[in-house]
Amino acid sequence: MKICIAQTKPVKGDIDYNVEVHKSLINIAILQGADTIVFPELSITGYEPTLADALATTPDDSRFEVFQTLSDTHQITIGIGIPTRDLTGLHISMVLYQPHAPWQVYSKKYLHADEDPFFMSGYNTLEVIRNAPQAALSICYELSVSEHAQNASTLGANLYVSSVAKTAKGVATAIERLAEIARTYAMDVVMSNCIGLCDGAECGGRSSVWNKQGILLGQLDDIHEGILVFDTDTQEVVVQLLETA
User: Fold this and answer.
1) Residue 243: which pLDDT band, with cuts at 50, 70 and 90?
2) What single DSSP character describes residue 125?
3) Does residue 133 have a cis bond before it (omega within 30 degrees)?
4) Whole-angstrom distance, CA of residue 58 vs CA of residue 32
5) What is the pLDDT at residue 43?
6) For residues 211 and 232, what is the distance between their CA atoms, to the nearest angstrom?
7) Burial classification of residue 6, based on how many CB atoms lie within 10 Å of its CB (0-12 exposed, 13-18 middle, 19 or more buried)
8) Which conformational region is residue 100 in: left (phi greater than 0), alpha (psi within -120 to 50 degrees), or beta?
9) Taking Cα atoms as reference points, which of 87, 122, 130 lies closest to residue 105?
10) In this predicted structure, what is the pLDDT of residue 123?
11) Judging by beta carbons within 10 Å of its beta carbon (0-12, 13-18, 19+), is residue 72 exposed, middle or buried?
12) Residue 198: exposed, middle, or buried by beta-carbon count in 10 A (0-12, 13-18, 19+)?
């Protein structure tokens, strides 16, 4: 499996612009032969809790049809971050567009206290995004909850995928924790973070890949948008930055 993690600089609330950046990075991932690409937390809107109620949408939003088309055409699974709403309330979600299959939604179950005024905990039947290897999903704060990684291991996951929106200080802590998860549960681990402003704070980038021993295999900086493509068989990591005008 070649899993790609994307690092983006979302423009606050500008869904159309952010979709275009997603498309550019997906096309780069396709050229690298990626099977799956995962974007940061709330990548389509930016991590903006105070705006999430107004920006909330659904996986069948016509602006996202391009993701299903790219998925079908190039046999790639695409995971984007959006605020979603259902009968229980507003959720921080990752929508997965899969080749010739219905989309699926993974909603953040474990919320940080700062998120409680804006979002509801999500209930998920979806636990993994592929069967070979088993790839467990997590969104930001969930990586800090010991039960989350432990449950992923119990379910047989050998790849832990974390989609986050973390500041420089927050990402430093997350990097330590994710390396620990890799070592403790003998899972490859990948983290997709953003750069730029999110909820008034500067995000720290440094999207990363670790092997099952917790050794860092590849990492982006805190300045550029781009991708890391990780081959779970060969353990090779390819870095590709997004060229800007």
Assistant:
1) confident
2) S
3) yes
4) 29
5) 98
6) 9
7) buried
8) left
9) 122
10) 78
11) middle
12) buried
pLDDT at position 124: 75
- Note the pLDDT of residue 133: 66
- What's the mean pLDDT in 166-193? 97
Spatial distance between the Cα atoms of 234 and 37, rounded to a whole number of angstroms: 18
Task: Tell me how far apart the alpha carbons of residues 132 and 126 are, in angstroms, rounded to a whole number.
Answer: 15
Instruction: Note the pLDDT tens digit of each residue in 139-163.
Output: 999 999 999 999 999 988 999 999 9
> What's the pTM?
0.96
Strands (E), the chain: 2-7, 36-38, 77-86, 89-97, 104-107, 128-131, 134-139, 159-163, 188-192, 195-198, 201-204, 208-210, 216-219, 226-231, 237-241
Q: For residue 216, how many other CB atoms are within 10 A of its CB?
A: 15
